[in-house]
Amino acid sequence: MPSSSYVSTLEKRAPRERLSFENLRPRKRQLRSPHEDSSFMFEKQYMTDPRDKYVDSEIFVDLSTRDLPLSRWTTVSQDDRQMNHLLTMFFTWDNIVERAFYRPIFEEDTITMDPQLPDDHPRNFCSRFLINALLAVSCLYTLDPVFFKEPQDSSTRGRRWADEAETLLEKIDKPSIPLLQGLYSLFVYEGVIGNGTKSVNYFLRSMNVYKDLNDVWTVQPRQGADDARLEREKQAISWCLWGFYCCEWRSSQAFGFRKLVRKPKIKRVWLEDNFTLSKPDCVGYWWFPYPISYQIQTSLQVEVRTVDVALSEIVEEALDFVYPEEGKLPP
Which residue segment(s) compose the domain that 271 sits in? Predict the structure, then answer.
């Protein structure tokens, strides 16, 4: 038992100051420019020496990468190299909007289609609205000041493309895959660094576009296209709509909504043997940590999609129980 003198000595000491979590957390130094950010400098360093051949310790793959003529689709920039860099960052690191993109036919139409066609032209998988919206959301993966609308303000990165997309959107009134993808791109962009009110409006409109596509457009036969193109379109429609079905509930649940969209009526084409993303000569079959170009591995997109759909079906049942229709009991 401690002596009384020892206890009195302890009582005379100043009480220990209670440390909060904030006091214990390491302080972050405020960056004065993007050039002090390691991720930004890493991106710039590897962008100066692009390579088309990718080497791993066990495999060697020659990928048929495409330089897309993006400057034909936007008035914001004529620098195709910078814009292709943005899109590659998007397809490498995004796991929300990218779910609803079928990259092979998107790249095909970006190269071959006429940008002057109406943005809601049926069965096109590229449009001026989509390209601008996609470049805007791709800017979430960079801090390069060249993409800022206002110098020194990183929250304005991609804003010029978002503004042009918004202007083009005013003239679109028919549902299409590019409209669906562009709306969801702007929803994510505005939700992260833009106006929250705009974000919700884009989200709700994208729900309506999906329902229109699922109810009518996807089941209509198409005339005037060869069989190979029709097969690619079928694969793209299936991949995009099922991808949207998988990503939508993550946003709906965050808003406290029941699942707003139901399963696509088109079948799961990616389960077929001839599906493009299952072939090693397709760029979407592989993944590497761009902007560096080694440690290449299979992307497993098809396998992930199968599991993602199974999870989304479970979520649909769960959310129907948690948020039953008004005036009805949970199923």
Answer: 58-322
